[in-house]
Amino acid sequence: MFLTAEPLYLCYRTVLVQMVSAAGTGYCFNTKRNRLREKLVLRKNDPLGKLQTISA
């Protein structure tokens, strides 16, 4: 067993985030992102709004 000063959850490189549609339809999905990079912004099809929206 390793003895570290920081908790184990801080050692993970990826984190699970919930992306919410910017169109305001309430559509959301889960994805992984790198913990060390900037915020994730994706362009994805929103099935409730029938259009492509930017999720942040």
UniProtKB/TrEMBL annotation:
Q: Which domain of life is it from?
A: Eukaryota
Give me the Gene Ontology terms describing cellular component: mitochondrion; ribonucleoprotein complex; ribosome
Q: Which UniProt keywords apply?
A: Mitochondrion, Ribonucleoprotein, Ribosomal protein
Q: Name one GO biological process term.
A: translation
Asked if the record carries the keyword Ribonucleoprotein, the reply is yes
Q: Where in the cell is the protein located?
A: Mitochondrion
What family, per the record?
Belongs to the bacterial ribosomal protein bL33 family.
Q: What is this protein called?
A: Large ribosomal subunit protein bL33m
